[in-house]
UniProtKB/TrEMBL annotation:
Name recorded for this polypeptide: DUF7575 domain-containing protein
Lineage per the UniProt record: Archaea, Methanobacteriati, Methanobacteriota, Stenosarchaea group, Halobacteria
Domain DUF7575: 136-161
One Pfam family matching this protein: DUF7575
Residues spanning the signal sequence: none
Keyword annotations of the record: Membrane, Transmembrane, Transmembrane helix
Length: 166
């Protein structure tokens, strides 16, 4: 449950401050690049459009109204793209962690089967024999059923955890 909250939180932090969402995900290089891009773009646009200095003691509405649309829209677009990138990177990290957990669980089940008298791989299967008579096992990476006789999942091409043992 906690892992599922990481991507939206990273996106929110990226919207609040450029690069903060990526720092939260410990992607330091991306954080620096996004921060430099957004801040550098803002400085460049302010210089290019010769915007008058802003009075930051004024209310937020007055400061926002003082920024020209030609400057505000590209900066808002960059901030939005940064937040989307933080969301996608966070989702990829959550998926990778889930895949690693599934692989570790499959390895644990495999080790437990071997401790119980060296049970064959068929002891780990979740399904029955298919029409060809081949035993099916669930791939820890993608969750689809694959043939236990081959050393990789034919759906996602990830090696099965017991492939390197034999």
């Amino acid at each position: 449950m906690r892992r599922r909250l990481l991507p939206p939180l990273a996106a929110f932090l990226a919207m609040c401050f450029p690069g903060l969402g990526h720092l939260f995900l410990r992607r330091f290089g991306r954080a620096i690049v996004w921060h430099a891009t957004i801040v550098g773009g803002a400085i460049g646009l302010y210089t290019l459009y010769d915007v008058e200095p802003l009075d930051f003691t004024a209310s937020i509405a007055e400061v926002a109204a003082a920024v020209p649309t030609d400057v505000l829209l590209p900066i808002a677009l960059l901030v939005t793209l940064s937040a989307i990138d933080a969301l996608l990177v966070g989702r990829a990290e959550v998926a990778e962690a889930a895949r690693a957990d599934a692989t570790a669980e499959a390895i644990r089940r495999r080790a437990a089967g071997e401790e119980d008298g060296g049970a064959p791989v068929e002891a780990l299967v979740s399904g029955d024999d298919d029409a060809d008579g081949a035993t099916q096992v669930e791939c820890p990476a993608c969750g689809r059923e694959t043939d236990v006789e081959i050393d990789f999942c034919h759906w996602c091409t990830e090696p099965l955890p017991w492939a390197d043992e034999e």
